[in-house]
Amino acid sequence: MASYQPRDEDEACGIVRAAAGRPERLRLVGGDTKAGIGRPAQDEATLSAAGLSGITLYEPAEMVVGARAGTPLSEVQALLASRGQMLPFEPADYRTLLGSTGEPSFGAVAAANNSGPRRINAGAARDSLIGVRFVNGRGEAIKSGGRVMKNVTGLDLVKLMAGSWGTLGLLTEVTFKVLPVSERVATLAFPGLDDARAVEALSAALGSPFELTGAAHLPAGLYGPARTLMRVEGFSDSIDYRLGELRRLLRRYGEPEVLDGEACADLWRRVRDAAFLAEPPEAAIWRISTAPGRGPALTAAVAGLSAARWFYDWGGGLIWLSTEAAGDAGASVIRAAVKAQGGHATLIRAPEAVRAAVPVFEPLSAPLMRVTQGIKAAHDPAGVFNPGRMYAGV
Questions:
Q1: Tens digits of per-residue pLDDT, 339-367?
Q2: Taking the alpha carbons of 12, 16, 18, 24 in that order, is the dihedral positive or negative?
Q3: What residues does the FAD-binding PCMH-type domain cover (predicted)?
Q4: Is the CATH number 3.30.465.10 carried by domain 48-180?
Q5: Which of 11, 213, 342, 343 could tie 6 with a disulfide, CB 3.0–4.6 Å?
Q6: Looking at domain 275-357, does it have CATH number 3.40.50.2300?
């Protein structure tokens, strides 16, 4: 199988034009750490962004950073940390979950709309993404957005590329807004709550004026006794005040432990990366989004699945679910529960045969599928980019 690694955007344009002319179907990769997400590859060659590396823009005072798509994410994060700044949306690292190697790339953060626990406070990756450069399926270099947030009329290509999983174009450069790192981070950990009470407590905290930046629940047995986690960030005096007020507000849910320092940071990394469900490696992993208040009802509906285990993020609105990978990996039961409660489910990890047999991403209605097919045809008329990765035939 051919493998292409362009050194610059012009070379990438030439490679794509040639592929479209044959046509030759291309699997787009950055660090190749998320290759196991999506339907099995239906490609004939690999097009890697790894050679498109380097930070192109950093203005700490304007809180903006830009880099070529193949730049290691860790390189960007190290630069930001040296100036006391960070990506607001807390991108996850799924290497432990997926058993993959390599180095996550900056462009893949945008391509996967990779957003962690802080999404409840700072929004998703797409909300901080303000500029992209990409090569479309005709081999044309496209620029959209810039250094500042603007109102957009017409098709917003920046937001369209976020979460497109490389199906619309090869990202060559991305630009994000950043935020200052907080002086202190602390977490209230309430012990012993069941799922319904935990989500009730998280909802009360999120509805308060005390500004949570993380809201998760770990059921009993996943990481020891059940723990309901509420994270706050900011100046130390502000955190002391907010912790005290949250304790008073939530006193009917018990007496929480306060976690600080590395213990707090490590726990949220595990939530961010879904590391609690990494073992056993042969299990299937689902990522389910729903209304926070409906999370416990949804998990109750799938609790009968073989080897089902789960935990909640985003105040109950994000459910990470592990099931046995046999058969359809619980797809029929999970899709029915999602239909009943509202939301969508993505199969993040499963054997290739399962990912080929069941929809990996939430199935689209007929009207939405027509829109999706139209957007794909407009950006990639020869169908060279990641064919079938998200939906069969697209």
A1: 999 999 999 999 999 999 999 999 999 99
A2: positive
A3: 1-181
A4: yes
A5: 11
A6: no
